[in-house]
Automatic annotation (TrEMBL), chain B:
This is Trafficking protein particle complex subunit. PANTHER family: TRAFFICKING PROTEIN PARTICLE COMPLEX SUBUNIT 2. SMART domains: Sybindin (SM01399). It holds the Pfam family Sedlin_N. Belongs to the TRAPP small subunits family. Sedlin subfamily. It comes from Ursus americanus. InterPro entries: Longin-like_dom_sf, Sedlin, TRAPPC, TRAPPC2L. GO terms for biological process: endoplasmic reticulum to Golgi vesicle-mediated transport. The keyword Transport applies. Part of the multisubunit transport protein particle (TRAPP) complex. It is found in: Cytoplasm, Perinuclear region; Endoplasmic reticulum; Golgi apparatus, cis-Golgi network; Golgi apparatus. GO terms for cellular component: cytosol; endoplasmic reticulum; Golgi apparatus; perinuclear region of cytoplasm; TRAPP complex.
Length: 661, 139
């Protein structure tokens, strides 16, 4: 609102107009009064001011003007009442000015009250017809009912510098000036674009979320004003206004002929969709299957019925697959829905596959009305569509795996030369936004791919879950290694590896414990050898040094975990070979152990023993649990069978006497 | 023309049922339900040998005083049952067949939607509108 600078009215006089407002209003009044006061672009305040004093505005043009403000009829009624025109019976200057201020207030979203006009307000915006624009500014309003801000209006109100706006206008104005056709356009022509645009806006406003604000968007369209600079101001002003309301909206599209603004796909959107399509299906001329598309669209987090409906709308040939245009349409609908647009009853004409295919090569100049409400991205006040949708969609698609790089590259591919400058500025803005986004998206693709794969996996497994569980259970069995195929080795048998997995561990252990210190005795070198050897190898878990020393820890071997099994195997064949060495090693070992660290060895051995015992205990418990369960199940079955038997016996008894008799 | 249209799944539960005079719906539901027996009978009568040649259109299942009930079975044992007003004598067999054919086409379109899980209720708007077009003009 910084725009309403200038004189800015404070409280006090109800009709304190700022300079700009004065100009504007007076010109409007002049126009409505049919006075020739309003010259193209050069509305000199004096001339304008001179006129109103003596004239009252005609009701017809006034009504038209009010309608051009695109407020609902009810509001307009209120305004006319408030401003006193009804009372007075005509629109005198004061009434007119009050009315204009009220319109401005209403457009700003303030309630229609006299008090509202006491504060600073932006200028009311009117959608001017072509003729008006031409007359006024010598600028052809853009072809399809463009909204032209009353341009000359304010000069000072551009605290908000929107260079791009200005540029845009400037770039546009050259294109538009040629259209400065004679003002004598047929009056009916005036009606058509007005109503058309109005209705279009209305429909779009209704669709839009925060309804009243949206009407403004389009008007930011700094169209018309050929007088570039002054023309730039109002939009800026509006931009500032809009900012002040922290409504980040993008200007409304002005060129579309169709009433279905939100359903137009902009060029960037299209690029985006195409890229997405390619990510799912590399061949753009082929189609995406239903399941793939389903996975993809499910990520948008819309409800399934809605997605189902969107599919219905977009899959025109009902073949269960989406071609590129169908995909674009579906994507567009999803994005629209996410932004709060209600889904249409039927596929809008701009989303028809034929249309999309035909329109594909053309750069879309119309902007879609996709304002990123929910997005807090800095809205470029560009009237053209461009990135609005894209930004919006980008953010939206944060859910989707988004190749962010494509987006930015798309940006640069824009073909609208008239918008180059705007693009640059926009790009600057966008790139900052996009920088943030790519980070998200780079993560997102990863996560989403994961989720993708995750989603894919469960889907494929959904029908075989039970079997997989069973497989898993079965898979768990291996970890409890079955008793090793015991080569009937004397030592092996003595070692009795089977006991490793049995509860007899403690017993053996205890049996083993006493001997440990007595290492050297040859008679039990077998055990010691094995122990030492086995320990050498299984020392995955233990200090290797222990192996040689811990000959006493014979039984640790059995209690070591399955990983040691292969080691034992290795150990086995080695046994004969090692046996020869054993004596030496054991001699050396025990000797050193005896001399060196019999105690530490013992301690370590005991710790190993403990671990082994614990593992054995665990396994036993598991086995117990399984057996217990089995037991209970079998008992139940037994009971049932018993009961059946009893029942059958009863029946038999009942039947028997009959037959007997 | 049709007064009530129902789509019954293979397991004999309704996927979609809609009748025009919205009062007294229960009566139509009941009629459809009883007609299922007749449908089963006809299917089994056609015989296992003739599964391939079995015609999808079953014809008049049974007539009542006010209504006639027609049936149609797809190859996946999804049944379409249609109740028409007996007073509508202009309704010929061909027309009924064509109505069933439309139903079948719409049903396959619904099936093609990947978001539709077979066995769910049919909530497709396109299907609804098609059925509405068939059920028009009951006064």
């Amino acid at each position: 609102m910084e725009a309403a600078a200038g004189g800015g009215c404070g409280s006090g006089q109800p009709l304190l107009l700022s300079e700009g407002e004065q100009q504007c209003y007076s010109e409007l009044f002049a126009r409505c009064a049919g006075a020739a006061g309003g010259g193209p672009g050069s509305g000199p305040p004096e001339a304008a001011r001179a006129v109103p004093g003596a004239v009252s505005a005609a009701a017809g043009p006034v009504a038209d003007l009010f309608r051009a403000s695109q407020l609902p009829a009810e509001t307009l009624h209120q305004i006319t009442e408030l401003c006193g025109a009804k009372r007075v019976g005509y629109f005198g200057p004061t009434q007119f000015y009050i009315a204009l201020k009220l319109i401005a207030a209403a457009q700003s979203g303030l309630p229609v009250r006299i008090e509202s006009i006491k504060c600073e307000l932006p200028l009311p915006r009117f959608m001017m017809s072509k003729t008006d624009a031409e007359i006024r500014f010598g600028n052809p309003a853009e072809l399809h009912g463009t909204k032209v801000q009353i341009p000359y209006l304010i000069t000072e109100k551009n605290t908000f510098k929107r260079m791009d706006d200005e540029d845009k206008q400037e770039t546009q104005s050259p294109t538009m000036s040629p259209l400065a056709s004679p003002p004598s356009s047929p009056p009916h022509y005036q009606r058509v674009p007005l109503s058309h645009g109005y209705s279009k806006l209305r429909s779009s406003t209704e669709q839009m979320h925060p309804a009243p604000y949206e009407a403004r968007q389009p008007l930011v369209q700094p169209e018309g004003p050929s007088s570039g600079a002054p023309g730039a101001k109002p939009p800026r002003h509006q931009a500032s206004l809009i900012r002040s309301f922290s409504v980040e909206r993008e200007p409304h599209d002005n060129n579309s002929n169709y009433p279905d603004e939100p359903w137009r796909i902009t060029e960037e959107q299209r690029e985006y969709y195409v890229n997405q399509f390619r990510s799912l299906q590399p061949d753009p001329s082929s189609f995406i299957s239903g399941s793939v598309a389903k996975n993809f669209f499910t990520k948008s987090k819309l409800s399934i019925p809605e997605l189902s409906y969107i599919w219905e709308l977009s899959d025109a040939d009902c073949d269960g697959a989406l071609t590129l245009p169908e995909f674009c349409a579906a994507f567009h609908l999803i994005v629209a829905r996410k932004n709060g647009y209600p889904l249409p009853e039927g596929l809008p004409p701009t989303l028809q596959p034929e249309y999309l295919q035909a329109a594909f090569p053309k750069p879309k100049r119309e902007c879609s009305l996709f304002d990123s409400y929910s997005e807090s991205m800095p809205a470029n006040q560009q009237p053209r569509e461009l990135n609005r949708m894209e930004k919006l969609s980008i953010k939206d698609m944060a859910d989707f795996p988004v190749p962010a790089q494509d987006v930015t590259s798309d940006d640069k591919q824009e073909q609208n030369k008239t918008r180059l400058e705007q693009n640059k500025t926009r790009l600057a803005l966008k790139s900052t936004a996009d920088e943030a986004l790519p980070k998200d998206m780079s993560e997102d693709p990863a996560t989403s791919k994961d989720s993708n794969s995750l989603k894919a996996r469960p889907r494929s497994r959904s029908y075989s879950s039970t079997s997989i569980e069973e497989a898993m259970k079965r898979g768990e069995d291996p970890p409890t290694p079955p008793p090793r195929p015991q080569k009937t080795h004397s030592r092996a048998s003595s070692l009795d590896l089977n006991k490793v997995f049995q509860p007899s561990v403690p017993a053996t252990k205890s049996g083993l414990l006493p001997p440990p210190p007595a290492l050297p005795p040859r008679p039990c070198p077998s055990q010691s050898e094995q122990a030492s050897e086995a320990e050498i190898h299984p020392q995955l878990n233990r200090a290797p040094s222990q192996a040689a020393d811990s000959s006493p820890t014979k039984k640790d071997i059995p209690y070591s975990q399955p990983p040691s099994k292969p080691i034992r195997r290795k150990f086995r064949p080695e046994n004969p070979a090692t046996e020869n060495q054993e004596p030496s090693s054991t001699v050396g070992g025990p000797a050193s152990a005896a001399t060196g660290k019999p105690h530490t060895a013992v301690q370590k051995q005991s710790s190993k023993q403990k671990k082994a015992i614990q593992t054995a205990i665990r396994k036993n418990k598991e086995a117990n649990a399984v057996l217990a369960r089995l037991n209970s199940e079998l008992q139940q079955q037994l009971k049932e069978v018993h009961q059946e038997r009893i029942a059958l016996e009863n029946q038999l008894e009942q039947l028997r006497p009959v037959t007997v008799l | 023309m049709a007064v009530c249209v129902a789509v019954i799944a293979k397991e004999n539960y309704p996927l979609y049922i809609r009748s025009i005079p919205t009062e007294n719906e229960l009566k139509f539901h009941y009629m459809v339900h009883t007609s299922l027996d007749v449908v089963d009978e006809k299917i089994s009568a056609m015989g296992k040998a003739l599964v391939d040649q079995r015609e999808l259109y079953l014809g008049l299942l049974y007539p009542t005083e006010d209504y006639k009930v027609y049936g149609y079975v797809t190859n996946s044992k999804v049944k379409f049952v249609m109740v028409v007003d007996s007073s509508n004598t202009a309704l010929r067999d061909n027309e009924i067949r064509s109505m069933f054919r439309k139903l079948h086409n719409s049903y396959t379109d619904v099936m093609c939607n990947p978001f539709y899980n077979p066995g769910d209720r049919i909530q497709s708007r396109a299907f609804d509108s098609m059925v509405t077009s068939m059920m028009v003009q009951v006064c």
